[in-house]
Design a protein that fits this description.
The structure holds 2 protein chains of 2 kinds. Helices cover 33% and strands 26% of the residues of chain A. Chain A is of the alpha+beta class. Chain A folds into 3 domains: 62 residues, Uridine Diphospho-n-acetylenolpyruvylglucosamine Reductase, domain 2 (2-Layer Sandwich), CATH 3.30.43; 116 residues, Uridine Diphospho-n-acetylenolpyruvylglucosamine Reductase, domain 3; 110 residues, Enolase-like, domain 1 (2-Layer Sandwich). Chain B contains 19 helices and 32 strands. The radius of gyration of chain B is 27 Å and the shape is globular. In chain B, helix 10 runs parallel beside helix 18. Classes of the chains: A alpha+beta, B alpha+beta. At the A-B interface, strand 1, helix 1 and helix 12 of A face strand 1, helix 3, strand 6, helix 8 and helix 19 of B.
Chain lengths: 305, 785
C-alpha cells in the first residue's frame, strides 16, 4: 500500500496544444541562429520541420525554454552538385530529396529511404537535418548516409567542423553536437564507378517507423567484393555500421551462398531489444535477411550503371 | 423486382454529404464554438487500481477554473448504453470515480476559457491516492480465488448484486447432449483461441458540447450513434426531465461501435456545464480516446465433433471475455457470441459457457461485428481443420453444414430468433471459387521457396438489426417523419444516425423509389431529439434494413395522403385506388396519374402548391417502426496471401469479397464496405493489438505512432480486389435489402488465417498473427519441434 500525489504524464499530455511555455525565435540567417544558440543553446531546441520536436513537446518529453525556428534560413536549403560530391543543406525537405534527380541517380540507397519515410505530408515538412539530429535509432536517413560515407558539417559561433556521420550518434536522441552547434550540411561523395547501394526497411505497415532497417553499398570487381559497407537501423542504441561483417565479405567471391553465410555475422554487431514495435529475436533474424537482400540489390544496381 | 425495374435503387449517385466532407466544410461536434464557451479537461487516473483519498482543487479554482470532483456529481451507478432492457442492464459506471479501476478512469474535471488555461488548471489539481494496488491484467488471474475485487457491488437493473471472482456476468446455454454426441463422434477437434484488443481508431475522437439555457434546459452536441439514448441517460443521471434536454444530431466521424454507449465525456461535460452555467466543450485527444474504449478481447475454447462423412454433431464454446474495468454491453455480447456460434453451423448439440471478467484495463465495447469477427475467426479455423482432417474440400464441408435458408437463425442471441428466408451462400461460394482460382489451391506441404502463397476461405454473417416478432431483451425500433414541402420537395426526418457509410442516403433512395421523387429533391434533415421520434441506435447493421423499413412504411402512408389530395383534382378518379405515383422521366419529377390514363396527371409539385394555396394542409406522415425479423447478411471472402518465410511478412495478393445483402441499394457504398471491412479485418488478423505494461499502462501510451492500422498501400491493388453480390431478395427488407456494415468484416480474419495456413502449414490460435509470430513458428518448425 502506497500513498502518492501524482499527476501522471497522461494528464500532462495534451496534443490539442503545445502545453509547454517557451520563448520563440525565428532567425533569418545562419549567423543569427548561431548567435542565439551561443546564448541559449543549453536550454534551446532547434525547430526545423517540427515533425519530431513538436510531437515530443506535446508528449512533454522535452520542455525547452527556447525554440529557435530555423525554417526561414534559406541558405540551409539546397542540393548542390559539386562534381565529386553532393552537398545537401540541413534544411532540405525530404520531398525535395524525393524530387531530386541527383539523389535518385547517385545515391539509390538514400532514395530508397526517402520513398519510405513517412507520408507525403511528413516529407513536405520534415528536413534531412532534423531526421539526423533527432538521433532516433530508427532514423531512415542514417543507414544510407552511413554506407555512402557522408560527412556532416557542424557550425557554431566559434567556427565549423566536419565529422563522418559514423561518429555523429551517441545514443537514442543523443549526438556529438555541442549545445551551441547546428547541423549545417551533409556532404556525400559520389559513389565510385561500378558500385551500387540499397536500403531496406521492415515496418508494421507501409507508413511506419522501422522495426529494423539496413543499407548496403557494394562494389564487385572480377567477381570479387572489393568494397562493402553495411549499416543497420533500429537494432542498437544508434544506427550502426558492421565492420566485422564487412571485413569478412571483402575479397570474397560475390556468390549468394557465400553472402548468405557471411551476413550471419551482423547479428553479433547489433544489440536489438524487445519493444512495442518488435522483438529482439525478430530483429536479429531479419537483420541477416535484409542485409543479404540489400547486397543483392546493390549488386544489381552496380551492374546496371 | 429486378434491378432494371428500379428507378433509383442500385444506381450510382453522389452522396448528399460528399461535397461538404470533401471540401472540409462539414461541421462535426468538435467544430462547434459557442460564444462564452469553456473548454473542459478530464483528470484521468494515473493508477490502474487505487482509491482517491483527497482532491485539492483550491489552486485550480484560484486560477479561475470550474472544477468538479466525485463530490460534485451524482454518484449513482449507470450503464452508458441503453440498448438492453432494464432487467439485463448491468451498471458499474459513475460520472467521476473515487475508485479508479483502470489507468484513465475519470476522477475530476476542469473547465476554463481556453484549452491552455484548462490544461494549466488540470495540472494544478492535487489528487492523493490510497490503497494503490497491482493491477490485474489477466482475466484468468482475475477469476482466481485470491484476486482482489475490482468491483464489489454493481447494479443489475435496480437490483444490487455482489461481484464474485471479478466475473461481471455469466451466460450458459445448452441444447441436446454434447457429451454423448462428442463420445460418438468420429472426430473431435479441441482448440483454444485468444483474440486481440483492438482500438477502434475511428476518425473522430469523442467530443461533447453542452449549452445551458435560461429556462433550465440544456442542448447537447456530441459524438454519438444515438441521440435519443443520450438524452435519456443524461436525464436519468442528472434527474432532468427529457423535455428539458435536447440532443442535436451532428455528423459523426465514424465510430465502428464506439459510440453506441454514451461516451464518458458526455456526462462529464454536462456536469461541468451545470456547475459553470456556461457552455462547456470537451474534445478528447487521440491519446485520451485510446484510453476510452477498445474491442472485447475473447479467450475461447472450442470442441467440435463430426462424423466421418462430414456431418457436424456437436459444438461447445467456452468464451471468457476480458472486459476491462467496466461493463458496457458485456451481458448481451455473451448472448450474441453464442448466437454467432450456433448460427454459423448446425452443431446439432450445443453447450456454451460465457463469462465476462473484469480486469484493470481500458473498458471494452462493441467494435464492428460485435464479437462475430472473433467467433467467426475461431470457428472458421476449426471448420477448416476438420475439413482437412476428413479429407474434404473446405468449401464443400461448409456448404454441407452451414445454417442457411429455412433454418432457425439467432444472430443477436437467444431472444432474437427468426427463419432464414434469403441465402446467397451457395452462389457466393461458387462464384468466389472461380474468381480466386480455387483449383490452384495446393497443400501447404507442396510449397517450397522463400515466398509461399496460400488460398483460404472464410464465411460469416451479421444480423440486420435486432428486431423480431417478440419483444426480447434488446430494444429495437425507430421512427420516421416525411413531409411534402409546398413546392413538392420532401423533408425526411429521422433520429437514426449515419456513421459515415451512407445509411441515410440509402433511406433517401428507398423513399425516392417508393414515391418517384428524385433523391436530390429529398432533404435529409439534421434533426434533434425534440423533433424526431425515438430511434434506439445505429448499430447491429440495422441502418438500411430497419431505418429503410421505416422509410418504406412512411413513404407508403405519405402516398395515401397524396392520393387523397390528388383525387380532388384528377376528375375521372373516384377512389385513391385509381391513382398511381411515379417518376416522370421527361418532367424529371414525381407525378400522380390515373391508372390506365397516364395523361390524366398532376405533378407532385403542382399538387403540393395547390394544397398550400387552397388551405388543404400539409401532406405529412409519422411512423414508428419495429422490424419483424433480423435476417442474416452472409459474407464470404476468398483470399490469396503471400508469406515471406524469411521475414514472416504476409501480403494480400488477391481478394474476392462476396456479400449477400439482398437488393443492393448503393453499389459503390456497398463495395466500399467490403473494401473497408477487408482492410479492418486484415489489421485485426496480422497487425493490431494494445498490449499493456505491468503497471496497467498501454505500451503505446495512447500514441498512434505505436498503434498502426493498415493503409491503402498495404492492401491489394484495386484490380486484385473484386467485390461480388449475391442475387437475392430479402422478403422482409426494404425493397429486398439487408444490412452489410458488420458482415463485411466478420469473415475476413477466418479467410486470412486459413490462407496463411495454406501457404505455410502453420495454424495460429492467437491474434494478431504478426511477422514475429510467423517467423518464430517457422523457426520452431525448422528446429524440428
Amino acid at each position: 500500500m502506497v500513498e502518492a500525489v501524482k499527476l501522471s504524464r497522461h494528464n500532462l499530455f495534451n496534443t490539442h496544444i503545445i502545453p509547454v511555455n517557451f520563448k520563440y525565435f525565428a532567425p533569418k540567417t545562419l549567423n543569427e541562429a548561431l548567435e542565439l544558440l551561443d546564448k541559449y543553446g543549453k536550454e534551446a531546441k532547434i525547430l526545423a520541420g517540427g515533425t519530431d520536436l513538436l510531437v515530443k513537446m506535446k508528449m512533454r518529453l522535452v520542455e525547452p525554454k527556447y525554440i529557435i525556428n530555423i525554417k526561414g534560413i534559406r541558405e540551409l536549403n539546397f542540393i548542390k552538385d559539386e562534381g565529386n560530391q553532393v552537398r545537401i543543406g540541413a534544411l532540405t525537405r525530404w520531398r525535395q530529396l524525393e524530387k531530386s534527380e541527383l539523389i535518385k541517380n547517385f545515391f539509390p540507397s538514400l532514395y530508397d529511404a526517402v520513398k519510405v519515410m513517412g507520408g507525403t505530408q511528413i516529407r513536405n515538412m520534415a528536413t534531412v537535418g532534423g531526421n539526423l539530429c533527432n538521433a532516433s535509432p530508427a532514423a531512415d536517413s542514417a543507414p544510407p548516409l552511413m554506407v555512402l560515407n557522408a560527412k556532416l558539417v557542424l557550425a557554431s559561433k566559434k567556427g565549423e567542423r566536419e565529422i563522418p556521420i559514423t561518429q555523429f550518434f551517441k545514443g537514442p536522441g543523443k549526438t556529438v553536437m555541442e549545445p551551441d552547434e547546428l547541423l549545417k550540411e551533409i556532404t556525400i561523395p559520389k559513389p565510385e564507378e561500378g558500385s551500387g547501394s540499397a536500403f531496406i526497411k521492415v515496418a508494421r505497415t507501409s507508413m511506419d517507423l522501422a522495426k529494423i532497417s539496413a543499407a548496403t553499398a557494394l562494389k564487385v570487381e572480377d567477381r570479387k567484393i572489393v568494397m562493402v559497407r553495411i549499416a543497420i537501423g533500429s537494432a542498437a542504441p544508434t544506427p550502426v555500421r558492421t565492420p566485422k561483417t564487412e571485413e569478412a565479405l571483402i575479397g570474397q567471391p560475390f556468390r549468394p551462398s557465400i553472402i548468405r553465410e557471411k551476413v550471419k555475422l551482423v547479428v553479433n554487431e547489433i544489440s536489438p531489444i524487445d519493444d512495442v514495435r518488435s522483438t529482439a529475436f525478430y530483429r536479429k533474424e531479419v537483420s541477416k535477411i535484409i542485409v543479404e537482400d540489400a547486397l543483392l540489390i546493390s549488386y544489381e544496381r552496380a551492374s546496371r550503371r | 423486382m429486378t434491378e432494371s425495374e428500379h428507378l433509383f435503387i442500385g444506381k450510382r449517385t453522389i452522396r448528399k454529404d460528399a461535397i461538404p466532407k470533401v471540401t472540409g466544410t462539414m461541421k462535426f461536434s468538435s467544430d462547434y464554438y459557442i460564444p462564452g464557451m469553456l473548454v473542459g479537461r478530464i483528470y484521468k487516473s494515473p493508477y490502474a487500481f487505487a482509491d482517491v483519498r483527497h482532491i485539492d482543487t483550491s489552486e485550480a479554482e484560484r486560477m479561475g477554473a470550474v472544477v468538479i470532483t466525485p463530490d460534485d456529481v451524482p454518484s449513482k451507478l449507470f450503464n452508458p448504453r441503453l440498448v438492453s432492457v432494464f432487467e439485463v442492464t448491468y451498471k458499474d459506471y459513475q460520472v467521476l470515480t473515487k475508485h479508479p479501476r483502470y489507468l484513465g478512469d475519470a476522477i475530476a474535471a476542469v473547465a476554463a476559457p481556453t484549452e491552455e488555461k484548462a490544461q494549466r488548471a488540470l495540472e494544478a489539481l492535487r489528487v492523493e491516492f490510497d490503497n494503490i494496488r497491482k493491477p490485474i491484467l489477466d482475466p484468468f488471474e482475475a477469476m482466481s480465488p485470491n484476486a482482489p475485487q475490482i468491483h464489489d457491488r454493481i447494479l443489475k437493473g435496480d437490483e444490487r448484486i455482489d461481484v464474485k471472482n471479478n466475473v461481471g456476468c455469466v451466460l450458459e446455454y445448452s441444447e441436446g447432449d454434447v457429451d454423448k454426441a462428442l463420445k460418438n463422434a468420429d472426430l473431435v477437434v479441441e482448440r483454444r483461441f485468444k483474440t486481440n484488443r483492438r482500438y477502434h481508431m475511428q476518425l473522430e475522437p469523442k467530443t461533447a458540447l453542452c449549452i445551458p439555457h435560461s429556462d433550465g434546459s440544456i442542448t447537447i452536441y456530441s459524438t454519438t450513434q444515438t441521440i435519443h439514448n443520450t438524452r435519456i441517460l443524461i436525464g436519468q443521471i442528472f434527474d432532468i426531465p427529457l423535455s428539458k434536454i435536447n440532443v442535436v444530431k451532428v455528423p459523426i466521424g465514424g465510430s465502428f461501435g464506439s459510440s453506441i454507449q454514451i461516451n464518458p465525456v458526455v456526462p462529464i461535460t454536462v456536469a461541468l456545464c451545470l456547475k459553470a452555467r456556461k457552455p462547456v466543450k470537451i474534445t478528447l485527444t487521440r491519446e485520451e480516446d485510446i484510453y476510452d474504449h477498445v474491442a472485447y478481447q475473447m479467450h475461447f475454447k472450442i470442441r467440435a465433433g463430426v462424423t466421418k462423412d462430414g456431418r457436424l454433431v456437436a459444438g461447445e464454446l467456452e468464451n471468457i471475455m476480458d472486459i476491462g474495468a467496466h461493463q458496457i454491453q458485456a451481458y448481451p455480447l455473451l448472448g450474441t457470441a453464442l448466437g454467432w456460434f450456433v448460427s454459423l453451423y448446425k452443431w446439432r448439440n450445443i453447450r456454451y459457457v460465457g463469462k465476462a471478467v473484469y480486469t484493470n484495463k481500458v473498458p471494452t465495447c462493441a467494435f464492428r461485428g460485435y464479437g462475430a469477427p472473433q467467433v467467426s475467426w475461431a470457428v472458421e479455423t476449426v471448420i477448416d481443420e476438420i475439413a482437412e482432417k476428413l479429407g474434404m474440400d473446405p468449401v464443400d464441408f461448409r456448404l454441407m453444414n452451414y445454417v442457411g435458408k429455412g433454418d432457425v437463425f439467432w444472430g443477436q442471441g437467444p431472444t432474437v430468433k427468426s427463419i432464414i428466408r434469403s441465402d446467397g451462400v451457395p452462389e457466393l461460394m461458387e462464384r468466389g471459387k472461380k474468381l480466386i482460382g480455387w483449383h490452384r489451391r495446393r497443400l501447404p506441404s507442396e510449397k517450397t521457396g522463400r515466398y509461399r502463397r496460400g488460398i483460404g476461405v472464410g464465411r460469416s454473417f451479421h444480423t440486420s438489426g435486432a428486431g423480431g416478432p417478440i419483444s426480447g431483451e434488446v430494444i429495437d425500433y425507430t421512427g420516421s417523419i416525411l413531409k411534402v414541402n409546398e413546392d413538392g420537395t420532401i423533408d425526411y426526418i429521422t433520429a437514426l444516425q449515419d456513421h459515415g457509410g451512407g445509411t441515410l442516403d440509402a433511406h433517401v433512395k428507398i423513399i425516392a423509389e417508393e414515391l418517384g421523387v428524385p433523391p436530390d429533391l429529398i432533404n435529409l434533415v439534421w434533426s434533434d431529439t425534440q423533433t424526431t421520434l425515438y430511434d434506439v441506435c445505429t448499430h447491429a447493421s440495422r441502418g438500411t434494413y430497419v431505418g429503410g423499413g421505416a422509410a418504406v412504411q412512411a413513404a407508403k402512408q405519405l402516398k395515401e395522403k397524396i392520393f387523397n389530395y390528388a383525387i380532388r383534382v384528377l376528375e375521372k378518379a373516384v377512389s385513391p385506388d385509381a391513382l398511381r405515383l411515379g417518376y416522370d422521366k421527361e418532367l424529371k419529377q414525381a407525378v400522380v396519374y390515373v391508372v390506365d390514363n397516364p395523361n390524366m396527371k398532376i405533378t407532385l409539385k403542382d399538387l403540393a402548391t395547390l394544397a398550400w394555396q387552397r388551405n388543404w394542409g400539409t401532406i405529412a406522415t409519422t411512423v414508428t417502426y419495429r422490424s419483424k425479423a433480423a435476417p442474416p447478411s452472409f459474407t464470404v471472402y476468398f483470399v490469396e496471401v503471400e508469406v515471406d518465410t524469411y521475414t514472416g511478412k504476409v501480403r494480400p495478393v488477391k481478394v474476392i469479397g462476396g456479400a449477400d445483402v439482398g437488393t443492393v441499394i448503393n453499389p459503390d457504398f456497398a463495395a466500399g464496405q467490403l473494401h473497408g471491412g477487408f482492410a479492418q479485418g486484415w489489421g485485426m488478423t496480422v497487425l493490431e493489438d494494445t498490449p499493456y505494461l505491468e503497471n496497467g499502462e498501454l505500451m503505446n501510451r495512447g500514441f498512434i505512432t505505436d498503434y498502426k492500422i493498415v493503409t491503402a498501400q498495404d492492401m491489394p491493388k484495386l484490380e486484385d480486389f473484386q467485390v461480388i453480390f449475391a442475387h437475392t431478395y430479402e422478403p422482409t427488407g426494404p425493397h429486398g435489402a439487408k444490412g452489410l456494415g458488420e458482415a463485411a468484416l466478420n469473415s475476413v480474419a477466418g479467410a486470412v488465417a486459413n490462407a496463411i495456413y495454406n501457404a505455410i502449414g502453420v495454424r495460429f490460435y492467437e491474434l494478431p498473427i504478426t511477422p514475429e509470430k510467423v517467423l518464430e513458428a517457422l523457426k520452431r518448425r525448422e528446429g524440428g519441434e
